[in-house]
Amino acid sequence: MEASDIEAFIDAHFPQVHMDGRVLSVRSVQPGAVSVRLEPNDRHLRPGGTISGPTLFTISDLAAYYVILAHIGPVALVVTTNLNINFVHRAAPGPLTCEASLLKLGKRLAVAEVSVRDEDGTLVSHATATYSIPPRKPHTVK
Known about the structure:
Number of domains: 1
Strand order of the largest sheet: 1-2-6-7-8-5
Largest sheet: 6 strands, antiparallel
CATH class: Alpha Beta
Number of helices: 2
Radius of gyration: 15 Å
Shape: globular
CATH topology: Thiol Ester Dehydrase, Chain A
Strand content: 35-45%
Number of strands: 8
């Protein structure tokens, strides 16, 4: 899938991703990798002017999902089975870039790594995520 295909799939099947407006966009799709950008708004901030942990978790989860979709196609029931995130530096208000890459893509499991950086390139969080891929329907011969 290309960036536009991923965005069209999300619009059709997960419109709640854009409940705050179009703050998330797929920037590029490359072999084994996806780049996603977040333009946060006030809802994504916690007191003190920091992008919230739940926001960083969400964009990490979505970026990992997107990199899997980019490589297996539009499968809505790929689900997160584990996501481990480390908050490395304070995420000041402003755009964030998420770089997701595949570590493993098997028949039933996929593992991805996501680095989230601010505009200065500072790493603000790092996550690894495992997803369950549903079995493909077997072909029947009649």
